[in-house]
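Could you help me review a protein record that somebody else here produced? This is what I was given.
***
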Amino acid sequence: MNQMAGKLDTANVPFSDADFQALAALAHREFGLSLAQSKKPLVYSRLSRRLKAREINSFPAYLDLLGKREENAERLELISALTTNVTSFFRENHHFETLRTDSLPASIERARNGKRLRIWSAGCSSGQEPYSIAMTILDMMPEAPRHNVKILATDIDPQIVAKAKAGRYPAEEAGSIPDGFRKKWVKLEDSGTGQISMSQDLQKLITFAELNLIADWPIKGPFDAVFCRNVAIYFDQDTQKRLWQRFSELLAPGGFLFIGHSERVTGPASATLRGVGITSYQKTAAASAATNQ
């Protein structure tokens, strides 16, 4: 019989190499995560909390739980524990400058002439990235909500997607938002909670959804730009190569891909995406022509 959660001591629960390898295999199979043996202490530390939360006193028992069909919610808790949702508004601002100067002008002109404008925040975490994209668009195109302009924001973690959709953050996070943007689209809540909230104008542009990037995508595109930053670092090289290629296939001619500061496009996508700045890539004219044949 399991001990009660309040009394369960996970500090000394055995965690064998076989336990670690089984968890690593599950994380790779389900989510594409690549866990090196050196990550074993970190995995132990983070998953011990899940054992306590579920009143489980061994890792083999936790693995049995994860294998149950009805425990999809716990599998999502697993990936949430093994990854880090660190983000901020206008993080790696050079990407937003490239978006502003090189991507959006032509995309906005097409949108004003009745065409669609689509940007995907893939691995949106708690939402600061898509809201930053929305502010950038509205600054350049105040009438965007009246046109066919949409931002898709996806993440695998339903709890983090719900937080992103709510659009509420600690007030101190507003410091990275440009003053003009903050005055237009960010409100300090009156409840005394020390929270800020994103305006309805921003929220109207964004559709939030759950999505596992290594599974099938119910997405057709094309996208004018894709942001997938600090996500591929959790994947092995083969999974990364497939991911870059899938993004390339969904980009519009001349579309941009923005990735994390420690990530690089590799594999077949290297032939279709050219580097145009710091971890910024653009779909080449040759690749776009081949796609349209």
Summary: The first helix runs from residue 17 to 31.
